[in-house]
Amino acid sequence: MQETLNALRQIPYVTSVQQLSGSIQDEGFNFDSIQHLLANRKKITLIGKNGCVVFFAQKSNIVVIRSEANVNLGAIDLILDSIE
């Protein structure tokens, strides 16, 4: 998984890649709420004027990818699709 996170960090315009888990709480995210949103899907992409955030569910972890507006979402999708 660490290799995948490093590959995501190398994509131009990606500003941060974070791995969340239920045991480690982050003040910026409510893990339970995000996990509930991802209950029926593996990935959610939120696109805004100033950038986007991709939430990706992987077993009991959630990967959070933040980027600027010009990011190549196809490159992110390609890397995430390679995760089994």
Task: Give a brief description.
This protein has helices at 2-9, 31-37, 73-81; strands at 14-21, 43-48, 51-58, 61-67. The protein is of the alpha+beta class and 84 residues long. A hairpin with a 2-residue loop joins strand 2 and strand 3.
Structural class: alpha+beta
Low-confidence stretches: none
Number of continuous helical runs:
3
Rg, alpha carbons: 12 Å
Instruction: Please tally the β strands and state the result.
Output: 4
Q: Main β-sheet, in a few words?
A: 4 strands, antiparallel
Shape descriptor:
globular
Order of helices and strands: HEHEEEH
Helix % is 25-40%
Q: In order across it, which strands form the biggest sheet?
A: 1-4-3-2
- End-to-end CA span: 10 Å
Beta-strand content estimate: 25-35%
Give the averaged pLDDT, no decimals. 87
Give structural notes.
The chain has three helices and four strands; from the N terminus they run αβαβββα. The protein has 84 residues and is an alpha+beta fold. Strand 2 and strand 3 (51-58) form a beta hairpin. The longest helix is centred in the last third of the chain and has 9 residues, at 73-81.
